[in-house]
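assembly run, all chains below
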Amino acid sequence: MTQPGQSPYTAEETALIRKRQAARSRVMGVALVGLCILFFLITVVKVGVWG
Amino acid sequence: MTTAARDILMPAEWRDFWALTKPRVMSLVVFTALCGLLAAPGNIHPIIAFTAVLCIALGAGACGSLNQYYEADVDAKMARTAQRPLPAGRMDREAALHFGVGLAAFSVGIMGVAVNWLSAGLLAFSIFFYSIVYTIWLKPNTPQNIVIGGAAGAFPPVIGWAAVTGDVTLLPVLLFAIIFLWTPPHFWALALFMKTDYGAAGIPMLPNVKGQRVTRNQIFGYSFPMAGAAILPFILGDSGWLYGATSMLLSGVFLVLAFRVWQNEATDAAAMKPEKQLFAFSILYLFLLFALFAIDRMVIA
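ok done. output:
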């Protein structure tokens, strides 16, 4: 049984969780940057800066 | 604690979220939407066109996620779907639900604000139709599930058209009709040689409920109105000879393959070569038909 304050995961499992979290964060980051650029471009088109 | 119970606590990989969106289905949806968008009269800014196609892709991804959320137990019983993220235990169901609802709301909202609210409304209705009407109501209850449910997959070219013009005329309705009438022969050809898979999962596909002879009759029967709908844009003068000639040729090949399915009496999946050929050709048929329609319309324009 897990003691208070002790992680329920083994060292290998913790490393795997960190790896998956890092990969998901990278993908989320790329998606957010892409959306920021897209929203900026949509705004420019809607405002009519490019005619 | 069992190994399986510990595994479920692991955060899902981003690839599992990607798999939830059914990327292969999404590619066909994006393609037909793009063809509808290119074939529509009028101009659309490339950035807005890109946004429209992106929103349609995200909407299709939402449909895939919500479908897999609801059908996780059914998917676990079929060899073809058992390795999807939910039945394989790589993701918990709530994550799939939240991902699907989030994608749906995001895609419809952006479509409305950036493109127009008619295309956003059509996108919202197609997501509702696929997720609720088809997945929850039709699929587990009637062997006509994919006939009515096929409407959900027929919306993308109409949405692409509406993104450009802001309205829906006869021509996008014809594009809708082509996919709507193409869906039954396409899926029933698959259902014939995947009969045991669907049977094991308790899904009332036509071959399991009405038998293989009735299914083969229906495949051949649906191929005629499908071919008629495919040629109609040319007959009505809405396309040139490029589309007219190729739609007749492709529809002719489709009818020949459907006829060979109708002739076949095989009950063993290994002997269902005509069914496998029709299924493979039906995908090529739709890709070529819509690509040539868009090219033809752009040449006319």
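Chain A touches chain B through 15 residues (CB under 8 Å).

The first helix of chain A runs from residue 11 to 47.

not gonna interpret more than that til we talk
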